Amino acid sequence: MSENLNEIRKGLVGVVADVSAVSKVMPETNSLTYRGYAVQDLAEHCSFEEVAYLLWNGELPDAAQLADFRKEEASNRAITPALHQVIRAFPHDAHPMDAIRTAVSFLGLEDPDTADTSEPATRRKAMRLLARIPTAIAAAHRASKGQAPVDPDPSLSFAENFFHVVLGKVPAPEVVKAFDVSLILYAEHGFNASTFTARTVTSTGADLHGAVTAAIAALKGPLHGGANEAVMHMLTEIGSPEKAADWLRGRFDHKALVMGFGHRVYKNGDSRVPTMTRYAEKMAEVVGDRRWMEMSRILAAEMLEKKNIHPNLDFPAGPAYHLMGFDIPLFTPIFVASRITGWAAHVIEQSADNRLIRPLSQYTGAAQRELPHR
Ligand code: ACO
Questions:
Q1: Which of 97, 216, 257 is the pocket-test mutation for ligand 1 (most atoms within 8 Å of CB)?
Q2: Looking at the DSSP assignment, which residues form a beta bridge with residue 31?
Q3: 199 in Cβ contact with 347 (< 8 Å)
Q4: What pLDDT digit, counting tens, does each position of 25-77 carry?
Q5: Domains in the chain, ordered, with CATH?
Q6: Using one digit for the tens of pLDDT, what is the confidence trace for 151-209?
Q7: What's the short name of a Pfam family annotated to this entry (predicted)?
Q8: Is 322 in the active site?
């Protein structure tokens, strides 16, 4: 194709950049499918490991395939003493997203398959990243608090092990289930900014660790994954349900963004929100603290009434993670621990039918001119 399309779509709004068989986002029906399965059905009836397998292989695993997948993931969780040493050298006030971005980059230095961009090598690397990212997130977080790392436990599920390495204990099954559901809901979402970043890096022929390092950088931004942390900061700032409506009016007066609301694709509601809200409500019951969900309910109702803007997944995920006992700076790294599955699926898809991603820009700078005499 040699034609130049002159219409500029700022933010690539509405641009269809490629085909993909990984997931389908359907804003007209507020729905989302992974490989054809509705995300809310997967969240309710499957484990995160089954969904990871589905995203990477196109089909749900049978019992033997799932057992093999779980075994492979569980046996790859340990990180090297060298990475532990690097993590201990991170400044204690480093943001965990910067820590995990650096750790993933370091994992690339250590990986025996780093430079091999063939599909089998990418799959091996993806499995190692899936398994090791929680260990690295937890080690960095604990080091920042002066705590020793906790060794991963291969007898635990992915979700149970995440609690184990971060908090040193596994909570009640209903809390683990709510966390597992959040991992499933966060796993994949079409050509979002971080996934498109991963595909762009991959399109140059670069390797998985490079693509994932760049994707983590993209995910950190508050307009993308960073919003789940911003939501909890916002709720903490509001402080109590009685103050929610007034606080929101102040935001409207300043034409400020309200974090956890709005979406580039869904304009009538994010398909993942009802499921996550239900599990966040369960967490509020388990913990016996209704304050955050009550505030959330008021904010959501006011935003809809006054602005016609719906919440996105980050809105219920923020308070849910807080109620599960995670510190706020861990919220977006949890998104990384899940989204590595979607990123890797897209990297494999991009590599299988690659063309360099290289759009054009319309020049608006100075007209061509002569150099000053010298
Ligand atoms: N608070 C207040 N107003 C908003 C919000 C919001 N959260 N989101 C959109 N709007 C307003 C916009 O200001 C705009 O108003 P205008 O027409 O008067 O200028 C209108 O709604 C339309 O919004 P767009 O700018 O077209 O939305 P866009 O698709 O460019 O941006 C985005 C989407 C970035 C998600 C935006 O809604 C936003 O910044 N939300 C807050 C951050 C957030 O929650 N991000 C998480 C995204 S989901 C995820 O990563 C899992």
A1: 257
A2: 26
A3: yes
A4: 999 888 999 999 999 999 999 999 999 999 999 999 999 999 999 999 999 99
A5: 23-221+329-352 (1.10.580.10), 227-324 (1.10.230.10)
A6: 999 999 999 999 999 999 999 999 999 999 999 999 999 999 999 999 999 999 999 99
A7: Citrate_synt
A8: no
What single-letter amino acid sits at 58? G
Q: Has 246 been annotated as catalytic?
A: no
- Under a CB-based contact definition with an 8 Å cutoff, are residues 46 and 211 in contact? no
DSSP-derived secondary structure letter, 153:
-
- Compute the distance between CA of residue 22 and CA of residue 9 in angstroms, rounded to an integer: 24
Residue 103 structure tokens: 């750790």
* Residue 18 is a catalytic residue: no
Query: What is the average per-residue pLDDT within 352-363?
Result: 96
DSSP 241: H
Would you state the structure tokens that stand for residue 152, as one six-digit string? 């991963």
Tokens representing 370?
Answer: 């002569």
The separation between the first and the last C-alpha atoms of the chain, rounded to the nearest angstrom, is 43
Judging by DSSP bridges, how do beta strands 31-34 and 23-26 pair with one another? antiparallel
Q: What is the pTM of this model?
A: 0.96
Q: With H, G, I as helix, E, B as strand and everything else as coil, classify residue 25.
A: strand
- Which range (264-273, 326-335, 337-346) has the least confidence? 264-273
Percent of the chain with pLDDT over 70: 99
The length of the chain is: 374
Amino acid at 340: I
In angstroms, the Cα distances linking 370 to 249, 362, 363, 367, 374 are 54, 21, 18, 10, 11
E-only strand ranges, the chain? 23-26, 31-34, 37-38
Please tell me if the CB atom of residue 330 comes closer than 6 angstroms to any atom of ligand 1.
no
pLDDT band at 374 (very low <50, low <70, confident <90, very high): confident
Banded pLDDT at 102 (limits 50, 70, 90): very high
